[in-house]
Amino acid sequence: MTISSLTQLNALTGGLFLLSTFGIIAMRQVLGCLKMFILQSVFLAISALLLGYLHLSIHLFAVAAITLMVKPVLIPYLLRQTVGSEVTARREISQLINIPTSLLIAVGLTILSYFVAKPLLSVSGAAGTVTDVNLPIGIACLLLGAYTVTVRREAMPQIIGILTMENGAFFAGISIAPDLPLIAELSAAFDVLVIALVMGILTRKIHERIGSTTVSDLKTLKEV
Amino acid sequence: MISKIFFNLLQVIVVMAFSPLVKGILSRLEAMVQSKRGPGILQPYRDIWKLLHKEEVVSEQTSWIFRFTPYVVFVTPIFVTLLIPVLTNYPLFFAFMGDMLGGGFILALGGFFATIAAIDTGNPYGPMGASRTRMVGFLAEPVFMIVFFTVSFVAGSTIPYIVQEAWVTPLSNFFEPSHVLVMLAFFMLIIAEAGRLPVDNPSGHFELAMIDESKTLEYSGRGAALMKWGSAMKFFVLLCIFLNVLVSPWGLARGEGLLEVFIAVPLVLIKIFVFILFLVIIESSIAKLRLFRIPEFLGAAFITSIAAMIMYFF
Amino acid sequence: MGLLFILVIPLAAAAFSLVHADRRFAPAITIAGALAVLILALKTAFMVIKTGEIVAIADWVSCNSLSALILLLVAFVALTSAVFSWGYIEGHTGSDRVKKMQRYYSRFNLFVFSMLAVVLFSQLALVWVAVELTTLMSVFLVSFENTRQALEAAWKYVVLTCMGAAFALIGILLLYWAMKSAGGKTFTWEELTTVSQGINPGILKTAFIFILVGFGTKVGLVPMHTWLPDAHSQAPSPVCALLSGVETTTILYVILRLLPVLEVSPSIHSGEWFLVSGLVSVGAAAFLLIQVKDYKRLFAFSTVEHMGIIMVAVGLGGPAAHLGATYQILSHSITKSLCFFAAGSTLLIAGTREISSVRGLIRTSPIAGGAFLIGGLAIAGAPPFAVFLSEFSILRAGIAGGHYIAITLLGIFILMAFAAVMFHVNRMVFGMPPEDAVRTVLPKTVVISLTMALVPVIVLGLYIPDSLYELLRLAAASLGR
Question: Does A106 touch chain B (CB under 8 A)?
């Protein structure tokens, strides 16, 4: 495959990655969110694979393999195990801002992230390469994840939002930092796993103690 | 020149002749997926034939709009057929008359008449369906616009014949992210416009839940036949725009030979058939959305089209 | 090799804490581990003063003067709060108390490990992982009491700091990108400083802002501080001492180590960023301190204030202000841990966190009351305690540098905070105790750790040993170029 077609395939993966991030915002069901997250992680792995092929880097292949193992498989499994089916199977997620408005805000955030990334691309001389796609979409995904955490009221989607943020950072990372030491890469993957585990267990504790996982109703601690 | 006029007329004939077949195949496939036998694939033809031979009853309360509408609904897709590539990948005789935006307006005219005719009857279900159709229409409009803008920015033109080539030359353009996203957005748009699941259930017979069907409830005889046929043709035309212009011009006749154009007919039908298979799989795996969730569905389509535009511009 | 032992000992202690044994075993092993770490940290600090940066594994584990300072503080607070835990945690466990205690000490050690790892790792990617681990390892310490409020605090803590960490991650990756294009090879602090001349200021600035927002969330800078008073008030007091006393400064250390890189390109205006974010934090904290109803929250907001003061000091720039910043880090850590021990003792006696229901503490329990009074005076910045000296040196450095507006604001905010803290502390310590108040005897270990924490607070205000001063000076020097 030629470089241009690889770049193009990567751009397509990036587009679908972004779309699946929008999907996380648009989904009402917890399980739907989780499925979108799985899809997103798979696209992350595919992009790592394509970039690995492009740079002929074993290292990125390893990253793709780690990603594929941890994010779409282990994390959903862990979340289901720790949180319990009662929470994951919840159908409707309540959120502060309704979904169409959320989507519009999401578009605004995406455009914003392109504006953040654009000067960086031009000063670094990376314009026209795969970074062109990965950096702005990564930042966009980071912001969209942060947005998800902010507006969703349930615990599970908030966890997914945080994992989405990490995914966004990694998506940018595979193009701007493709040769980080493998130990760092491994420990970062481990770290994400621990996030899912810790937050999952905490969610279950909240559920056991309070009987609901609508974490935004937890408002006893505040000033005055 | 003569051949171009002939081919243009041939396009119209193909659309008129095969659009009920497409509907028939679609409903048969749906029945099969649901483990039912379902009507034969020629059932829409029989329906239209039967209705054409029945007496038409028109309420005394209605105005001329009610009687005039079936003809508008019937004729508008035919006009659009003259403009778009159905069989050939080069412009035919009447294609100079309008671009994609023009086609969109003509189709919208049919929709407009159907809506006011539904209000004209005084039947309570008609206006209800009409208002819902308008709601879907209003929400679909921005998506259509963005898709249209993206497409014309990419191709540098609004003429469908130029646009269709832009996506496949070179072939890797087909996998351009903005192209894939535009296809996705337009696909969602077709679902909304043609009243398929999950926006509307075309096989539902419960008036309160109808969106598209309730507008034709009052028609009988020839009017009903024309409305039915017209909507089948509209569906066919939308599919042609989607498959031939937005997806790819594969299967269209490239030369001006008679044989080549005739071969294009089955090729295009096969393309549509493949798409219908795809549609049936999707439709049978999802449930109808509640009415107030439809904005979310179209919002998703809007986001997809915006994403396509962003991806193209930056 | 000493550095590696510092990392291994808490891990080993975490593992041993889970061993089924006598209920005294887990706290004992934790205290022993913390003591060993403190001794090693002292040794490291002396070596750093003598020979400069120590490298245990090239490009991976190393320790410079600033790390040594934080290392020392973490080790010290870890030891005192391990001792404090002994008597405190036993009173707070339910029926399955041995198991719960074992888990507590295991997590306690892991948390200490993660903080030590932040300062000892020199590979930035691993530093990020370690920072994230400090959150993840302390979440269940925050939710230890398993009440509705504790769980709420833990949730806010983990969600907000993880969000921050994700922002910081992209900042660190951008930093890596900038370093690579400047010709750097390994992603270490040292290499970053070496190539800092060639780093593109545009990318560096974006990276810096992402890191400031991301890690600033963990440090508790306003407006990302909202989790801090909750988590720092709901956790058990020994954990609060760690969270408030050293975790915040540990994360702040990561931001501070970027300083030499940032100062290369004046177009970033890093000083202004530090100054403004610091002043905003100090100001907001000063106002929030006035209206607190909970004395643990009082100290939590005081942490926000102190972090802000350090940020301002760093933003002022120059050796004198930097020395003030490192001194402030030192005085904050030792004083704040004392404050939370005093608050914990008060909680043991009064059984409530409300300021309004505690009266005449000095009569009910002279030890707790006295510690509370000294802690409150010290943290508010009354002379002759360490915080007074450090704040004073910062103000002086600022005036000498000609930053009059910033210093005026800082001075006003510090005075407001002082008045607010003293008002609340005064109400609690003096006055007549409620009728039904009983004189409770504090557990022995609590008294021991109070004394241990009290000694440096008093001593350092009057006299700084030469070697410690040298360490502070070296740490301050490492902040500038």
Answer: yes
